[in-house]
Amino acid sequence: MGAAQTRTENKYQDLAEKTGFSQEQIKNLHKRFQYLSGDEETISRDDLRKIPALANNPIRKQIIEAFFDKRNQHQDEVGSFQEIGFEQFLMVMSHFRPPTLKTTDEEREAMRREKLRFLFNMHDTDSDGTITLEEYRKVVEELLSKSGSIGQEAAKAIADAAMLEVASTNVPHMGPDDFYEGITFEHFEQILKGLEMESRMHIRFLDVDAPTMHCGKSKS
Question: What's the predicted TM-score (pTM) here?
Answer without folding.
Answer: 0.73
